[in-house]
Amino acid sequence: MNLAIALWLSQDAVTNGAIYALIALALVVVFTVTRVIFVPQGEFISYAALSLATLQSGKVPGTIYVLIGGGIIVAVLDGLAALRRRSLKSLPESTLLNIALPLAIAAAARWSASRPDDLLLQVVVTIAIVMPLGPMLYRLAFQPLANASVLVLLVIAVAAHYVLTGLGLVFFGGEGLRARMFPALQFQVGVLTISGQSIGVIVTALVLIVLLALVFGRTTYGKALRATAINRVGARLVGISSEFSGRLSFALAALIGAVSGILVAPITTIYYDTGFMISLKGFVGAIIGGMTSYPLAALGSLAVGFLESYSSFWASAFKESIVFTLIIPVLLWRSLATRRSEEEDDS
Amino acid sequence: MYRKLLLAVALSVGLAGTAAAQEVTIGLTMGTTGPGASLGINYRNAFDLMPKTIGGYPVKFIILEDKTNATEAAKNGRELITQDKVDAFMGSVAVPSTTQLALIANELKTPLMALSPVALPPSKLEWTFIVPQPTTLMMSAVVDHMKAHGVKTIGYIGFSDSWGDIVYKSMQELCGPAGIKIVTDERYARADTSVTGQVLKIIAVNPDAVVVGGSGTGDALPQISLVEHGYKKQIYHNHGTVNREFIKVGGKDVEGAIAPTGPLMVAEDLPDNNPIKKVALNFDRRYEKKFGAGTRNAFAGYSYDGFLLLNAAVPIAAKTAKPGTPAFRSALRDALENVKNVVGTHGIYNMSPTNHNGVDKRARVLVQVQNGEWRLIK
Asked: What ipTM was reported for this prediction?
């Protein structure tokens, strides 16, 4: 190995690590707020990447049917709940949010598909398609059992993962897709060629991380989420709806997933089930952060990126084994070093 | 649910009376979901185009899903034989699944048309007939091309699964006698976001050519990465690579890629005196009419060739026994073992007791990506 190779590998590591870091942040947000170990996070990546690639090929992605279908189910459930409560006040809002909005997004997707060169529009539409899936998923799968144990929530998450992967296969088929590169910028720094794409990934990741920090530190919604994360019962007592926090955290997770998917789509070939592997590596990063610490999760993901990149050079056949084996010493160290928190005890 | 529906259909057909007694039943277990989905869907699609009769007898297909899971495939295989009393069965998408089916075929004495390679010694393959070309036959076309172009060293990068191993092993077998040295054995996974590490290692060694041992669109990533990092020599692929999606994903970067494949992929380019041309072209046209232009693929061809082999063997077996009986299955096996000159979409099959595959060099062609299309190298 010489310096050039080391630099190349490091560039790769940072690019991938940045994506894993985003995913790790999403997993931590969802876990701290709702105690859900969010296995389907990866599906947002696949959905976004494949929707983007489909839009670029001038077709309307099948994910809008997931969106419309999901919206209708949510609206019906909300309607039934409203009937049971004998109060139809919330009905117009629910209809607007779950039926009118998806239809509007579908119309936008159709328009975008007819303009295959409008990259910005494609990105916006892709995010608009994927992001509402988060709150819908929460409403359908997790909200009815929000107070169940961590294990039950994990089982639901696994089930949701399979459902979404299956839908992905139906709508996108078994073969992979790749989106077009964003403006093909390239910089020559010494021996290293830095692609605009990897800079884009790193900058976007940093911006998102700073934005998240601002949201959590400065805004009322962010503080409400943090309060729920720290103490669910206490947060409810001061008037923070745990349902609302749940939906908000899932919306954030879906947004992060969509952005990661858009970032990764031009770098590699994405299959309907690729997102799972990516989110699993983000999960390793999140575990390093104990599923609670944002900075540690981000650093851990970066470490995963480096480990993966260098092991793919030295022993590519064992790359995955090396990356996932990292979990064991980390868990050992964490279980010895940290005390069980109250939150884990009641589950 | 699906299973129950099929049973109901099977039952009602059974009740329809003795008219159906002479019907031949063919089972299929296929993985159209799970890791093998991208290939499995193609295998499965061919069954929408199957004729209504086989060797002059009405035929019924029973199709089960195994999710690319070997245990599931084994369960399906047993069900097809013991409950549905199939006369022969076909499957499946992945080597581990098909290997399980071959063991069951042997145990329950029912002919199996293996639609993927099988990893078993010949003694266990008494009831199994392997439709796809052996990997060494396919890769020998690549090695011949390398020899003709003075390639002395090759770098290998393949999937970190059984397919990656199979392609690597066959390259090892072929390269030794050809005097070609394999200088790297790099592995990657289909879901990897980058193969930079592996590609840098190959470029550091700078071999005369690179062989990619993945399948479908999964093969595009190493090639794109190699080209991006400035590798300018020939990149070879394998017969799992050849489909239109590979070019769609790879774009300009896969221009010039060479791969072996079955003749049906480039049926139009074949010379008119090649008997395969007519069968392959006919199948391609019917397939693309139903599933869209450019959807032709090797895997649907294997399903169809499996049918054609049975089609040739059924009339011979029917002379000695009635369909639906153990005697018929045994006769079918013997007949399959002796079919000669069955022209399929992939090759011309000549089975014998020692060769349960029966294709020769006519079953492989080399193709190259030229102007965004797979074209025959003449």
From this structure: 0.81
